[in-house]
Amino acid sequence: MITQQDLISGIEEYCGEVNEELIRRAYLFTLDKHGTQLRESGDPFFSHPIEVAEILISLKMDQDTIIAGMLHDTIEDTHTTLEEITEHFGEKIAKIVDGVTKLSKFESSSLAERQAENFRKLLMSAASDIRVLIIKLADRLHNIRTLKFKKKKLRRQYIAKETLEIYAPIAERIGIMGIKDELQDTAFAELHPEIYKTIKSRLRHLYDASEHIISSTVNEIQKLALKIDIPCSISGRLKTPHSIWEKMKIRNISFDQLSDIMAFRIIVDSIAQCYQMLGCIHRNYLVIPGRFRDYISTPKNNNYQSLHTSVIGPLNKRIEIQIRTKDMHQIAEFGIAAHCDYKINGAQKPKTSTDYHWIRNLVSVLENASGIDEFLANSKTEILSDTVFCVTPKGTIVSLPRGSTVLDFAYSIHSDIGNRASVAKVNGSSVPLQTIVENGDQIEIIVDHKQVPKPAWEGYVVTIKAKTAIKKFLGAFDRERITMIGKSNFYNCLERYDIAVTDRDVNSICENLKCESRTQMFYAIGSSQITMREIITVYNEIKSANLNLSVVDKPPASIPNEGEPSIFGLPNLPITPVSCCSPIPGDRIVGIAIDNVGIEIHIEKCRLLPEKEREPNVKMLELSWNKKAFDVNKKYPTNLYITSTYEPGNLSKIATAIENKGGDIINLKIGEKYDNLFQIQIEVEVSDIAQLAMINAELRSVPFINKVVRS
Q1: Which of 166-170, 185-189, 532-536 has the highest mean pLDDT?
Q2: Of the candidates 308, 248, 318, which has an alpha carbon nearest to the alpha carbon of residue 278?
């Protein structure tokens, strides 16, 4: 068991001033609160938070973080309150503990929502204090070390999968590579035990066979460094099982085909010596093309800096070499912990969200995602992505996820530039907006104030900022369009019944429909959340309440009732329009009399008829068309659904086919494209069923039309 003194001694190694009394108090408080609780391994539960504190010490974290690490499970797993933590250890530590607690509470939710909810908590807490995220990583590291003690296999696999998909990439993002490697390998061993054992065995055999290769390579590089008078430390190692497995999958090769399994690290005193050492390596060994990376001039997003190169080294073996300074090595090993400043009262200056643009990007995802799946997918894209660096015409360097396009680049500069992007130039040449950018590209975006985002643009971009901006613009544009359609439908419905209304009357209808504003009501109508039947029903309620609305009981234009009725058996009641089947002369029809609404007229085979018949206060009427209904000068609307392949000018040919048979198109809507097929909904006015049959036959004769169905 780790003792109080062990923790204090560990902190004293890197921090000059240690509040021993506070450390001891936190240790005893944690021991007391967790009492006799046990972990699944049978160990006292108390051992877990103390092990987490020791991991934080290995990262050289500040005292507040270490104390919060000891206390991180007290609120979640005991009766301790946040107020109690504040009283005993102060507001700063309590705030960190509260942040970690919020990250843990999600674990009682369903598996389907757990990952996304964890991301949300992780993001919001890290945005206020990055130390919350570091404690959670230390917590996950100790949990993954003891994963084998969990009895349920599915639970172990879920934790391992979550570790690989979320926690290991986050550890890499904030630069804590040691934790990243251990998380990956342990989770990999749980998810793919046989593959892990095989690779581990091969690595052990390879190490035994090549131990002398590593030592001789280190000695040879050391001699080269001495020749150019550069003091350095050199170490060599075999890569981890998980990293080897990833290489095998990406390159689609076997273990035997891997040639860069060994990696060597050279640590020097200055940046100038990094480049001198690189030149020395390249002069003495055969360089493998395309394998050089300069992360000193262009650091990674987590501030990682180093020179990477691959060469054919001693004994004709392919090796990877990393060259960095001591300070760079600290950052590579400890990430943000390497930036701690313990000279001011022994306190760390933690990084905030302003130091990590990816956290800011994830905040925008959280605010704009339409659902859990979208949030989770976009968050993973942002966290897992590698980086490329591009240059503006003025020389400013812009970092983007690998696979980004010039349109992503435009949105990274400013949303308005992205929205108005018209032409892109890469290295002086005009290119399409969906062109993928490469390292070092100089990109110029030419804007056009008449340009607006198109739906296809969503498929051109990969960055969260670009996707969010495009979706936001299209959403606002689409909402305005739907609202205008709803407004038109609302007044058309009233006009068909000769309902004359004032602004006050419209407000009354809006209020009865429980809409906060007219705009909301029109949008609900346009998006089919409110039906025409509901409008008529509300109108009748208003009329019965003696509001000043006047109505003439006149049927809709689709079923005229001027003078002699067009339908036999029709009582003297208002006709309510229906959108489900739109009967026309020649159809076999029935009527449905509904209290306080009127009469609905349906085709006998209408899909909604069985449901309508079961409604209370409904009376079925036997109806039929009379000769007046077949007057050629009268038109009746009906809906056709056409499935068509894409052909240039196909809409024109469809319209011509309908007009050739005397039909009039009054509305047209194009649905989503699927592969090379898309659906067109057309509202057509015809005189009777015979004319509709001729139009259907004419449309089916068009080569690119696959299907014609009447709604």
Answers
A1: 185-189
A2: 308
Closest C-alpha among 475, 480, 523, 453 to residue 369: 475
Torsion of CA 638, 641, 647, 653, to 10 degrees: -20
Give the single-character DSSP code of 314: G
| pLDDT above 50 (res 13) | yes
Number of H helices, E strands in the chain: 27, 21
Q: Is 76 a catalytic residue?
A: yes
Is 145 in contact with 187 (CB distance < 8 Å)? no
pLDDT tens digit sequence for 427-456: 888 899 989 998 778 899 999 888 888 878
CA distance 154 to 26: 35
Label the pairing between strands 318-325 and 387-391.
Answer: unpaired
Question: At CA 694, angle to CA 691 and CA 695, rounded to 5?
Answer: 90
Alpha-carbon torsion, ordered 562, 563, 567, 571, to 10 deg: 100
In the chain, what is the greatest distance between 2 CA atoms, to the nearest angstrom?
A: 112
Residues 433 and 371 sit within 8 Å (Cβ to Cβ): no
Does the reported pTM lie above 0.85?
A: no
Beta-carbon count within 10 A of 488 CB: 13
- Catalytic entry in 6, 40, 43, 77: 77
Positive or negative: CA dihedral 130, 135, 137, 138: positive
In this structure, the number of other CB atoms found within 10 A of the CB of residue 349 comes to 11
**Do strands 233-238 and 262-268 pair parallel, antiparallel, or not at all (unpaired)?**
antiparallel
- The model's confidence at residue 352, banded by pLDDT at 50, 70 and 90, is very low
Cα Rg of the chain (Å, integer): 35
Task: Write the pLDDT tens digit of every residue in 487-516.
Answer: 887 887 777 666 677 787 788 888 888 888
Contact 431, 380 (CB under 8 A): no
d(CA 175, CA 383): 12
Strands (E), 83-204: none
Q: What single string gives the DSSP state of each residue in 436-464?
A: BP-TT-BEEEEE-TT----GGGGGT--SH
Give tens-digit pLDDT for 200-229: 888 887 777 667 778 888 999 999 999 999
Q: Which of these is catalytic: 6, 40, 76, 333?
A: 76
CA neighbor of 205 nearest in space, from 182, 238, 178, 228: 238
Both tokens of 24, joined, read 């001891």
C-alpha closest to that of 539 among 529, 524, 551, 527? 551
Here the contacts of 208-211 (C-beta below 8 Å, separation 24 or greater) are 210/262, 210/317
Q: How long is the chain?
A: 711
